[in-house]
Every structure is written in C-alpha cells, then in structure tokens.
Amino acid sequence: MNKCRVILFTFLVGIVSAGMAFSSDSDEYRAKRERMIEEIEGDVKATSRRIGKKELSKSVMKGMANVPRHEFVPGNLRRSAYENRPLPIGYGQTISQPYIVALMTDLLDIEGDDIVLEVGTGSGYQAAILAQLVKKVYTIEIIKELGEQAKGRLEDLGYKNIAVQVGDGYYGLEGLAPFDGIIVTAAANHVPPPLIKQLRPGGRMVIPVGGAFMTQQLMLVEKRNDGKIITKQVLPVIFVPLTGGH
Ligand code: SAM
After folding, report:
1. Residue 123 known to be catalytic
2. Structural domain span for residue 101
3. Full-model pTM
4. What percent of the chain has pLDDT over 70?
C-alpha cells in the first residue's frame, strides 16, 4: 500500500470506529466533553446524600460521554456546549444541565429492551442519551418548530430508534403505552394521571414537580407490580413549565 492509500485507509477506519455520534467531532469538543464528565461526577459526589448514590451507572456516563452536545445547541453557543449548565435553544426553552440529564437518566433504571417516553423533546439531547441505552425512545414536544428541528437533527446524526412527535405530552401517547420508563423534562404542578396510567407496572417515571419559575422537586415515581404508586423527592431543581391545555 503506498503512503496516500495508508493515510486514506487510516482516515476511513477513524470515521467508522468513531461511530455516528462523532461525525463532526473534534479534539477540542472531545476534551471539553471529558471535562464535562468530570464535572458531572463531581456534582454526583457533592449531592450523593440527597440522591442516595455516590456514582451514576457506567452505561449512563458512557452515553453522556458519547453524545455530541455541541450538535444540539444553537451555533453561537457551541463553544459553551459542554459547560455543565442549561443553555437557551430558542422559543424560551432550554437544553437541560448535563448533570441533571445524567441523573434523570440514571434514576429511570432502564435496560436494553426498554421502551421509553420522553415528554419535552426540546433540542433532542436527552432523547439521544436515552437512545443509546434502550430499544426505542418516543419523545413528544409541544412547540412544533422545536419538535421538527429535533427530528431533523436526530435523523442527521443517525439515531434510528427515536420517534419525535409534536403534541401535548401531558396526555402521553396512549396508543403506544405502556412504557417501561417515562421522563418528563418540564415542570408540572402535579404528576399527570395519564402518564401514571401509561407506565408499565414495575416501571419508573422521573418528573420535576412544582410551580412555574420557582424551585421544583425532582420526583421519582415508581409503579409497583401490584399497581401501587410510590413517590420520592430526589433533588430541588428548576425547569421550564409544562405547558398545554390541561
Ligand atoms: N429534553 C430537552 C433537551 O434535551 O433538550 C430539554 C427540554 S426543555 C427543559 C422542556 C421542553 O418541554 C421544551 O422544549 C418545552 O417546549 C417542552 N414542553 C413544555 N410543555 C410540554 C408539553 N405539555 N408537552 C410536550 N412538551 C412540552
């Protein structure tokens, strides 16, 4: 093989082994993502008493390390994409803080064969994290423009197991229920009864509960196999409100 061929071969192997999530990755973003992971680990340790664990599952952290968050933020914010904080994504909405995304994903306790519903697609970032861990992610967004943007972005990035729908997620997706896990990424002042109904016995829901524009409680809702509902407050959080007609 001459030198040019060797270089081309190495380049192609690099692209293939990097996989879909790294299609437009660079050393700069990779280094920033590694720092983001360290910050998440630091936040987990700092909140370990409240959240009841000293570390999150390895598969969740691997998912966080894989997804190119810079692809999910507006172009002018790419440099800040790996800061451990929420960022604006337009229409008055935000992409959530990486630590909170990781924690909520971990709390769901999902497995490879699971089918998960996300309410509040936003940028599609949380859906992309979930998609690496489960069989199928259904995600629903109330703002049409955001839903359509996220759908296009996730398709361009090669995610094949995410279905984006535009609609009011308060009512879930009854025709596709039950779900093994439900994650709500906007704050409601109560746990929506349709979502409880659509949770499989043995399944978990993670949802911020509380008033709009104030501190809410991140809640873990478990539906036991006998149908009994157990709720637990995990952490104070601040999310944009769950809107819609309910
Ligand atoms: N998960 C998103 C991400 O990874 O970028 C961040 C979600 S953002 C904090 C909350 C999202 O919930 C917003 O995009 C908002 O429009 C959406 N939302 C609010 N109320 C909703 C509802 N009733 N049904 C579906 N989506 C809703």
Report:
1. no
2. 27-237
3. 0.90
4. 90
Tell me: pLDDT of 214 over 90.
no
Kindly report the CATH number assigned to the domain that includes residue 193: 3.40.50.150
In a domain, 3, yes or no: no
Is 11 inside a domain boundary? no
Q: How many structural domains comprise the chain?
A: 1
For residue 118, which atom of ligand 1 is closest to its CA? 1
84 Cβ partners below 8 Å, 6+ apart? 36, 39, 40, 43, 97, 98, 99
**103 alpha carbon – ligand 1 mean position (Å):** 17
Q: Which two tokens stand for residue 160?
A: 């094949």
Would you say the CB of residue 140 lies under 6 angstroms from ligand 1? yes
- Does the residue 86 lie in any domain? yes
Q: Cβ(142) to ligand 1 under 6 A?
A: yes
In DSSP notation, 210-234 reads: S-TTS-EEEEEEEE-TTS-EEEEEE
